[in-house]
Each structure stands twice: as structure tokens, then as C-alpha cells.
Amino acid sequence: TAQEKLFQVRSSFVDKVSDPVLNKLLDELLHCGVLTDSENEVLRAKPRADKARELIDTVRKKGVDASTELIKVLKANDPYCCRELGLC
């Protein structure tokens, strides 16, 4: 499942994803309803690595649909990273 895929690439995602891409992911996941305003605010205040780690954890807890949406948004915003992680 998408949740399992995110769990498998969690540490690589934390190492590879850039802060600008993370911020774009947060914007889009907020817009489509995967993240709430308060979750978005808390994540934005974190350092890059913590933001990436907690983004994956937060989205995974929300289920397959949310996890699938994160992968889709990552693919649209950083297809290179998505391929490197084996998600696309």
C-alpha cells in the first residue's frame, strides 16, 4: 500500500527532500484537505529534517488515500526525488 511505501522510504525521504519542496507539499496537502491548518502550522515551524519525518508520519496515520495523495503531490513537484525513492 501507499502507507507501506512511505514507511519504507521514510529515512531516505528525510535525507533527500528539500525545504522548498516540503513547503510546496504542505501547501498542496493543506489545499486538498489531507492536512489541517493546525498540522500545517506545526510542521512549518520545524527544521527541515523534522518537518520531512513528521510529514510522512502524519500522512501515513491518515491512511491509504492520504498516503497516495502525498506520493502524487511529490511526483508532481519533484519527480526526480520521487523516482529516486522508488515511489514513481
Automatic annotation (TrEMBL):
Region forming the signal peptide: none
One Pfam family here: CARD
Organism annotation: Salarias fasciatus (Jewelled blenny)
Coiled-coil residue windows: none
Biological process terms in GO annotation: regulation of apoptotic process
Domain CARD: 1-79
The protein's name: CARD domain-containing protein
Superkingdom, taxonomy of origin: Eukaryota
